[in-house]
Amino acid sequence: MPEGDTVWQTAQRLHTALAGAPLTVCDLRVPRLATADLTGRRVLEVVPRGKHLLTRIEGGLTLHSHLRMDGAWYVYGAGERWRGGPHHQIRAVLATAEHTAVGYRLPVLELLRTAEEDRAVGHLGPDLLGPDWDPDEALRRLLADPSRPLGKALLDQRNLAGIGNVYKSELCFVLRLSPWLPVGDVPSPERLVAVAKRLLEVNRNRRARVTTAQSRPDRRLWVYGRPGRPCLRCGTPVRAADQGRAGQERTTFWCPRCQPGPQGPSPASGSSTPGN
């Protein structure tokens, strides 16, 4: 599930494959970009901003994409078979003489002037994995609405950019905090911000996301995706419930024993595990 660490990794792959070389193919398969042709222009860099990707291109242009739930960029060598999904799911193809980057199922794809990137990402808070990281500003934004439940505050990209549904649940567990605790009641909130950054940093170079320090696939995460299964710390069944505004709910996972305090509604039975 794409979160700040996944997007950071994707940006590194795209930058390594495309930066510095002119585009030999530019095929943007969304109606409003159907006539856009960037062929011959050099890719200058690919940078992440929270959960957004900014591909900066010669001539002052930026291709902005967002992966949301299941979007993905794949990089292939010249002549390599594309394996990211059916061709009708392809939204973008950027190729140089040596590599091809293919964007599948991209819900957001737009071409901006680089000088106007703030139109797409200017609302974001400090990026947990970015050069603009400012823990004091992130903390100020988190605490601006002290009555807001912690889980909802962490998912709000205007507070700090990069946390999705996985890290929201895992961070609350690691700190033994209920996701329904008002953010203003969080003890030592500066530690919350510091641990959030550390969790993403230690995972940005890993293939598999790990928060437990265990390598077994079924034990890499403390609570996320484990409803009804024993808590890895105390054995209590992990609970799951929707959290968020109507129509924008995200399933939160937590251990009611390890994370005392306000508890959510009845466990979400048979629901999916929507993400970012």
Automatic annotation (TrEMBL):
UniProtKB keywords: DNA damage, DNA repair, DNA-binding, Glycosidase, Hydrolase, Lyase, Metal-binding, Multifunctional enzyme, Zinc, Zinc-finger
Low complexity composition-biased segments: 266-276
Residue intervals passing through the bilayer: none
Keyword Metal-binding found: yes
Enzyme class (EC, first level): lyase
Limits of the FPG-type domain: 222-260
Entry superkingdom: Bacteria
Catalysed reactions, as listed in the record: 2'-deoxyribonucleotide-(2'-deoxyribose 5'-phosphate)-2'-deoxyribonucleotide-DNA = a 3'-end 2'-deoxyribonucleotide-(2,3-dehydro-2,3-deoxyribose 5'-phosphate)-DNA + a 5'-end 5'-phospho-2'-deoxyribonucleoside-DNA + H(+)
Entry similarity comment: Belongs to the FPG family.
UniProt name for this protein: DNA-(apurinic or apyrimidinic site) lyase
